[in-house]
């Protein structure tokens, strides 16, 4: 765990999803890796009126991105959230836990701008082929019939 805290190892999201550290280890991540930014984010959570549970989920998501990328949350962009989202969607179509309030915290500090998380990940109008391809059918006659 020490190698993670000093940034010597940048774990993948698969590892972080399975990793169950004891106690308040992710609190240590915030204290060691980006204390000033996480303090600003905690203040922002209070300003937004986030519940303690929502704030904790947001901080956990941000801590995982910090561990995975080695970046301070003040350096995050849309790409870091897209990678977290893609990793979570390899297993289910659900939004990663804590990602939405984490995005809101960063937007509130001017770190992320533009759309909110859900608008950013909304696919918009899709073609019939895109909808069918979402089911993972192999190219062939059955897929072609469904697209037609």
Structure report:
There is one protein chain. This protein has 148 residues and is mainly alpha-helical. The protein has one domain. Helices cover 61% and strands 0% of the residues. It has ten helices and no strands. Helix 3 crosses helix 5 and helix 5 crosses helix 7. The relative contact order is 0.11. The model has no long low-confidence stretch (mean pLDDT 83).
Provide a quick synopsis of the model.
By secondary structure, the chain is mainly α.
Taking the sheet with the most strands, its summary is: none
How does the overall form come out from the CA principal axes?
A: globular
Residue share in β-strands: under 5%
Count of the separate structural domains: 1
Q: Tags for this entry?
A:
148 residues; mainly alpha; 61% helix
Set down the secondary structure blueprint:
Layout lengths: L1 H4 L7 H6 L6 H9 L1 H14 L3 H18 L8 H12 L9 H10 L8 H5 L6 H6 L7 H7 L1
Helix pairs in contact: 3-5, 5-7
